[in-house]
Amino acid sequence: MSTLRKDLQLSRDFDSPEQEALLNLLRTAGHLAGDLDRIFKTYGLSQPLYNVLRILRGQQGEGLPCSHIGERMVTRVPDVTRLIDKLIKLGFASRERSTTDRRVVLISITRPGLALLAKMDKPVNEQDRAALAHLSARELKDLNRLLVKARQNS
Predict the structure, then answer these.
(1) d(CA 136, CA 143)
(2) Which residues pair with 4 in a beta bridge?
(3) Which CATH class is domain 16-123?
(4) CA–CA separation, 132 vs 81, rounded Å?
(5) What residue spans define the domains of the chain?
(6) Furthest CA-CA distance within the chain
(7) How far apart are CA 75 and CA 48, in angstroms?
(8) H or E element: which one contains 7?
(9) Rounded CA separation 117/54 (Å)
């Protein structure tokens, strides 16, 4: 009996190896996200809000349209505008019209947003390492390769 089957207390086998692998991925993602979510919550953020701030920080002061932010999200969310509105309300992001195309609204990270991320960098990076510290460098490389390969079909 597979470990996942035991964890889920299933009385029968999975319908396919693909189903077992997908459920394993989802369960693992949920498990690993829990510790990060606790860190985000400490700072008043969710994973999607944190992700938007990281994307904006990566722009190094340049604004980014909402649609481009949505394309770069780690996990797709249906309403990027709502996330941006919340970050603006918290003072971590700002919105302004493009000077070259007035139809385009650009979102930028603010100084308080940068300061918040700077405070979060160490605990988040430590948690990232701790979550998978039991895997060897080779296993991590293989895992990353396989995850990329799995996404190529979608």
Answers:
(1) 10
(2) none
(3) mainly alpha
(4) 33
(5) 16-123
(6) 62
(7) 8
(8) helix 3-7
(9) 8
